[in-house]
Amino acid sequence: MTPRPALLAALLLWPAWIGAQSTALPELAPVENWQPIFVEPAPIPVGTSVGVPPVPVAVPMGLTATLIAPRSVAGGVPLTLKVANAGKAAVQLGAGRDNDQNCAVAPLVRVLRVGTREVVYPVAGEPRLCAQDFRTDTAGKSEAVTYTRELELAPGEYMIEGWFTGSVSGASANATSANAVPVKLSAQPVRVTVR
After folding, report:
1. Fold of 80-194
2. pTM of the predicted model, to two decimals?
C-alpha cells in the first residue's frame, strides 16, 4: 500500500476510531484568576555584537524633588516642584506634556481625599490630547529648577503626591537626547486644606 491510500484510509477511519474510545477526556473548568508569565530575556554579554554596542549610562546622582503647597488655601491650589541638583556637574532635565495631567509638564500629581483612598485628580477617563511640546531646563551644580501649576479642588482635606517624570542628561554642549536617561523623581506628599 502506498502512503497516499494509507493516509486516506486513516482519515476516513478517524471518526470511527474517536467514537470507539471508551473514556472521554474530562472537561476542564475555566481559570478565573490567571496571571501572565513574563520571561526575562537573557542578558547579552558585554562585547558581543548585536547591532548597537552597549553604552554605559551613569544615572545622575544628587537629584531630589520637593513639592511645596500652602497648608490652607481658598480657591485654586498653587503647587511648586523644585528639582534640586546636589551632584558634581550640571544636568539637563527634559519633560513633555502629560495627557492625563491636563497637559501639564510638571509637577505631575495625584490628589487623594484625606481619610479615604479616593483619587480626586487625575480624573480617570478624561485624558486630553496635548501639544507635543518638550521643555528642557538646565540645573547647574547646587542649583534647582522650579515647575509650577495650579489645581482647582472642591473644599476639603487632601494629600497631594507630586513628582517629575522625564529625562536627565549631562548639560554639556555635546549632550543629546540620545544620552538622556528616563527618570521619575518623587517628592514627599503634602497635606492641603481647601476652604
Report:
1. Immunoglobulin-like (2.60.40)
2. 0.66
